[in-house]
Automatic annotation (TrEMBL):
An MF annotation (GO) of this entry: rRNA binding
Family statement: Belongs to the RPF2 family.
Keywords for the protein's UniProt record, in alphabetical order: Nucleus
Protein's UniProt name: Ribosome production factor 2 homolog
Upper lineage: Eukaryota, Discoba, Heterolobosea, Tetramitia, Eutetramitia
Length: 347
């Protein structure tokens, strides 16, 4: 059998679908099941509008899909459209107002959860302004179940994957114009609300913020669920080697409680003599040695002079005592000679 070469357009499409180090934004495929009522169809269209432009809408036609019974037909749709997220709506007597939310890895179903929809409120016309380029939702999860229950933790990651769309390093605060709030009411029920953020004047620098419910808002009751196996989950969460190397470079880097990046720097012991500081003349190596030699010579000279002074002082003392004795004897003789002369004068 001779295989024809793929055309240029087909090869380009296949290259785009190959795994990448930094993946493109996740696309979602929104489908309608065997039977869909009017309320559920509007909900699927509203969720498609929330995810646009990263969403493909196939709700115009009905599809024979039973994801919990047969996976292969759904995986065909996912592979043909190259999407990693899907949402299916169906309405039967056994399971009325039913939606199935799931995600895929390598065109195979990873996680899948079935919800029953009640207390549905449609999206208002104001929400059409949210499709502006760069508009991003602020996703809030309320309830202790999202921290304590492992199933609710995986539900949380599933909702984040579905609604976050693009990964951006920086976000303009004016671009955060709507809020998606998901609240756990009990172990089996969630409340989904969608609000628009209105900034009003407050007379200060920070504006007054108001949340307006614009829909869709509903209650979701968890019905059936299917989580990924450990091996498949491990493969899906595997980090490429290129990103691992870049992570190793950021050693001793961490975030504090406020989210600020901090780092520890380990400095080796430095040789002070090699530091390029201002060096004075007295601190130079040759000058210091010369000054030490001069000091030694001065000490030796002082010792020598001190010894010489001692010797001179001893010799001077002995000569002065001899002179004093001679002077005394001379005085006595002179007095002896002078006395008889005086007597002679008196006579």
């Amino acid at each position: 059998m001779i295989r024809k070469k793929a055309k240029r357009k087909a090869t380009k499409l296949l290259e785009e679908r190959k795994p990448k180090v930094i993946e493109d934004p996740k696309k979602s495929l929104i489908l309608s099941g065997r039977k869909v009522n009017k309320e559920l169809k509007t909900l699927l269209q509203d969720l498609h509008r929330l995810r646009s432009p990263f969403s493909i809408n196939f709700t115009q036609q009905l599809h024979d899909l039973l994801p919990f019974e047969e996976i292969q037909p759904l995986e065909k749709y996912v592979k043909s459209e190259d999407t990693s997220l899907f949402l299916i709506g169906s309405h039967t007597k056994k399971r009325p107002n039913n939606i199935v939310l799931g995600r895929c890895f390598d065109h195979q179903i990873l996680d899948m959860v079935e919800f029953g929809v009640s207390d549905l409120k449609q999206m208002e016309s104001k929400a059409s302004l949210l499709n502006v380029f760069g508009s991003k939702p602020c996703i809030i999860f309320k309830g202790d179940e999202f921290k304590n229950n492992p199933e609710f933790e995986s539900l949380r990651s599933l909702f984040i994957d579905f609604f976050r769309m693009e990964d951006t390093p920086e976000v303009n605060l004016l671009g955060l114009d709507h809020v998606i709030s998901i609240t756990s009411l009990d172990n089996n029920t969630l409340a989904f609300n969608h609000y628009k953020i209105n900034f009003e004047k407050s007379g200060q620098k920070t504006p007054h913020v108001e949340l307006v419910d614009i829909g869709p808002s509903m209650k979701l009751q968890i019905r059936r669920k299917r989580w990924a196996s450990d091996d498949m989950k491990k493969n899906a969460m595997k980090i490429p080697d290129v990103l691992k190397k870049s992570k190793e470079r950021l050693k001793n880097v961490f975030r504090d409680e406020l989210g600020n990046i901090q780092a520890k720097i380990h400095v080796k012991q430095q040789d002070i003599s090699t530091i390029g500081t201002k060096r004075y003349k007295a601190m130079r190596k040759g000058v210091a040695e010369e000054t030490e030699k001069k000091v030694d010579m001065m000490e030796q000279l002082n010792k020598f002079l001190h010894g010489k002074r001692k010797y001179k002082a001893g010799t001077d003392g002995s000569s002065s005592s001899g002179e004093n004795g001679d002077a005394a004897s001379n005085g006595a003789s002179s007095s002896a000679t002078s006395e008889p002369s005086k007597k002679k004068v008196k006579k």
